[in-house]
Specification:
FAD/NAD(P)-binding domain, Methane Monooxygenase Hydroxylase, Chain G, domain 1, 3 domains, 8-stranded mixed β-sheet, 6-stranded antiparallel β-sheet, 18 helices, 19% strand, globular
Length: 656
């Protein structure tokens, strides 16, 4: 790595040259850098807007899962069987499924080796359990903060190797030429007032982007507030989106963002709605259920069946609760809370009106007594402690909730080496669109490790060349950098308009109301038009308090591009006849109503397998979206005769 300084539009800009820049300091980003080093490519650096930001380090769940090949017991399993289960989620390419299955044990054992405390028995078997969409016991967990442990242990590996980390650098643009990535432009968050330090260029042969999904798109979100994502930038650079319609949504707390799965629901709290000021409290679920047993069982089952799933609406199944929470908040304009201090009115003191599964679970847990908070203390005291650590005392107050965005199954389209259509630009982790419609719980953590490993392997074998001379790079970069500088200067000079926070709230509210788990065609179209209009006038209609808000202004640009592309993908899916699937409901006037008493625009029809054999990809060109629908690639059936593979391996013909 070397450093020089160039001048563009009267700005002195430091230029760092190296083979590869990894963007992001979550589990995927740190693993990419560590793998590159171990594979022999040491001319690398990490760029991050904040080492301690992002989802990997700042999120978790009741028991955060890592999904991998079965590594214990006498149950049969195979790489192909795991790939098949991933592939059967729909809209997933078979080669990606095979890669994620084949490297799952390698990635998992590395994490265990560097100290992530996955449980094993005295003989060294890493035990497992079943997770959602998992026919075997492939899941494991290091507790509610599994991804945090992963990130911390991988960071130690990176620091021990002395890999340079550029902290507080927000990527605001790619440098590309002829369909290839040539580098990055960043805004130094701590030097926004210094024209000779505010911009930095990275002249590199390769980029691995590991910045997570576009979390900032939604106001109702489980993503940590520190994560916004960078999908818009990648669309702007020419990378395609894949399966952008596919998200995961579920009930979560809003003041402190956390999934309310597991025991939070299994203790059967009371669901309350109030007006905007917190007055007029009332239990609202029982208005829609024919009997108390169905309602109480629905609450209980949200622990097992946390993500919203349109297949679990009919016959008063568990995802009806998500519909009713949405109806209170987005349709009636009220607020919704979980009350752990009081039992639902419908719950009898002897628990006799619980269904068999709910009753047996609580009985076996020695929790057939008291109030929800007392049951929670008995079954999972750390669940109470977690909120107490974030200044929410469940023993004294209700918990405000909403149906929130939790994970983007889609993202940027990549091949089996996690390289995008823009050559030398790789994407790993949640930012990569590798999942299908449904995925086993915990497969995202595995995918991030596999994708970053595959990218590092390809780069270390095939993209070894040094970055071009700075003089040559400066000629390539000048036009793109000048455009970003012009945008920054317009932001800084503007004296009227909305604050960066008002714009962020507008775009987030728009997405949560119109393009989350409830999707109505006319509302999606309105979102597309609003996002495009807001994007076109963003510099003229934004006013900054100071130059340090430039970071948020550029984030809004990124998010508005992403919102336009994501909402356009949703509209295109509906135009192709796509119905309700995954974790969202698509309004169908000829469909069924979830339950009497909710708006007509909640009528839906299940899509089934109608569109699971094709994959939608979206390209953003000249401010418009172009769509292609491709058949899913089948799981490869390669020649696995040992002598043949050995010969190919020895002749360096594997990485291609």
């Amino acid at each position: 790595m070397n450093k020089e300084t160039i001048k563009i539009k009267n700005y002195n800009i430091d230029v760092y040259s190296m083979n590869t820049v990894v963007v992001g300091t979550g589990a995927a980003g740190f693993n990419a850098a560590d793998r590159l080093w171990n594979y022999g490519q040491k001319d690398i650096a990490i760029v991050t807007e904040g080492i301690n930001m992002g989802t990997s380090r700042n999120t978790g769940s009741d028991k955060q899962t890592y999904y991998k090949l079965t590594l214990a017991g006498d149950g049969d399993d195979s790489i192909f069987a795991m790939a098949k289960n991933l592939f059967e989620g729909g809209c997933m390419h078979g080669d990606l499924a095979l890669c994620e299955a084949a490297l799952s044990a390698q990635g998992f054992y590395k994490l265990a080796e560097i100290g992530v405390p996955f449980p094993h028995n005295r003989y060294g078997e890493y035990i497992g359990y079943k997770t959602d969409h998992d026919p075997r016991q492939r899941a494991t967990s290091a507790g509610p903060l599994t991804s945090k442990f992963m990130t911390e242990k991988l960071e130690i590996q990176v620091n021990n190797k002395g890999i340079k980390i550029f902290d507080k650098h927000k990527v605001i643009g790619f440098i590309t030429k002829d369909g290839e990535c040539k580098g990055l432009l960043t805004l130094n968050k701590e030097e926004a007032e210094n024209p000779d330090k505010m911009f930095t260029l990275f002249n590199c042969t390769n980029v691995i982007f590991a910045t997570g999904g576009p979390a900032g798109l939604y106001t109702c979100s489980v993503f940590p507030e520190s994560q916004t994502g960078s999908s818009g930038l990648m669309f702007e650079a020419g990378a395609k989106g894949r399966n952008l319609t596919e998200w995961q949504y579920g009930i979560a707390s809003t003041k402190f963002r956390w999934n309310l799965s597991g025991t939070y629901q299994q203790v059967i709290p009371r669901y309350i709605s109030t007006d905007k000021d917190g007055n007029d409290p009332k239990e609202f679920l029982d208005e829609y259920y024919p009997n108390s047993t169905l309602m109480l069982d629905g609450i209980f089952l949200k622990g097992y069946q946390w993500p919203f799933d349109p297949r679990k609406i009919e016959n008063y199944a568990s995802s009806l609760i998500d519909i009713l929470v949405y109806n209170e908040i987005q349709v009636k304009g009220r607020r919704v809370w979980l009350d752990f201090l009081n039992n639902p009115t419908a719950l009898k003191d002897d628990f006799s009106n619980l269904g068999e599964e709910s009753y047996t679970y609580l009985k076996n847990s020695n929790a057939l007594f008291g109030t929800p908070i007392e049951r929670l203390a008995k079954m999972n005291q750390p669940a109470i402690d977690l909120y107490k650590e974030h200044n929410i005392d469940l023993t004294k107050e209700m918990l405000e909730i909403a149906v929130c965005a939790q994970h983007n199954n889609g993202g940027i389209a990549v091949n089996c080496w996690w390289e995008t259509d823009v050559k030398h630009l790789f994407v790993a982790g949640e930012a990569a669109g590798t999942h299908g419609v449904y995925r086993p719980g915990g497969s995202a953590l595995n995918s991030g490790q596999v994708g970053s490993t595959r990218a590092a392997m390809y780069i270390s074998h095939r993209y070894k060349e040094e970055a071009p001379a700075v003089a040559e790079f400066a000629k390539i970069a000048e036009e793109a950098v000048s455009k970003k500088i012009d945008m920054a200067e317009k932001f800084m000079a503007n004296k009227s308009g909305k604050s960066v926070w008002e714009i962020r709230e507008e775009l987030g509210d728009r997405m949560s109301k119109n393009a989350a788990h409830i999707r109505v065609a006319e509302n999606i179209e309105a979102t597309i038009k609003a996002a495009k209009a807001q994007l076109e006038g963003i510099t003229e209609n934004t006013v900054l308090k100071n130059n340090y808000e430039l970071v948020k202004a550029f984030e809004n640009v990124d998010l508005l591009i992403a919102q336009y592309v994501y909402a356009s993908a949703m509209a295109d899916y509906a135009k192709k006849g796509g119905k309700s699937r995954g974790s969202y409901l698509v309004y169908d006037e000829n469909g069924i109503l979830p339950v009497e008493g909710v708006p007509e625009n909640l009528k839906f029809t299940l899509d089934g397998d109608a569109h699971t054999s094709t994959v939608q990809e979206v390209a953003y060109k000249n401010g418009e979206c172009e769509y292609t629908w491709n058949d899913v690639r089948p799981i490869p059936e390669d020649d696995n005769w040992f002598e043949n593979v050995w010969n190919e391996y020895m002749n360096d013909n594997i990485v291609k």
